[in-house]
Design brief:
138 residues, alpha+beta, Thiol Ester Dehydrase, Chain A, five-stranded antiparallel sheet
């Protein structure tokens, strides 16, 4: 099942023309990954860091389809598409109030251990990630 959250476009997300400044979409993608780990996986970024672990982004590709404007409410949806030994592939799509696609990002993160090198996912986390895999709707 996809993981979705509403996201309101605020002044701090926008350029002087009142549309989302493109790097802010990357923050939205990270927002979704961070909240997915806390809400669905049950192992948030704060716990990862406290344990000396982490999951940095190693690949990121974004398609920008239409501008988003100050005051709009987007729906952000994260889908897990693949789980590797230490990697996770996911997509995040942002849709406007009329369900129109505003952006779509493909992201790969890697689990790292205290030595800051790629390490296998802990079994409990891998199980939750694997349960979340689904086809990407493009």
């Amino acid at each position: 099942m996809p993981y979705s959250r509403p996201f309101g476009i605020e002044f701090n997300h926008c350029d002087p023309a009142g549309i989302v400044f493109y790097p802010r979409y990357l923050e939205m993608v990270n927002h979704m990954a961070e909240n997915f780990f806390a809400d669905v996986v049950g192992h948030g970024y704060a716990q990862m860091i406290a344990d000396g672990n982490g999951c940095p982004t190693v690949r990121l590709e974004v398609d920008f389809r239409a501008p988003s404007r100050l005051g709009e409410r987007l729906t952000l949806t994260l889908r897990v598409t693949a789980v590797g030994r230490s990697s996770l592939d996911l997509t995040v799509a942002g849709r406007g109030p009329a369900d129109d696609l505003r952006f779509r990002a493909a992201k790969r993160i890697v689990w790292i251990g205290p030595d800051k090198r790629a390490a296998p996912w802990p079994d409990r986390i891998r199980d939750r990630l694997t349960e979340s895999i689904e086809e990407d709707d493009g």
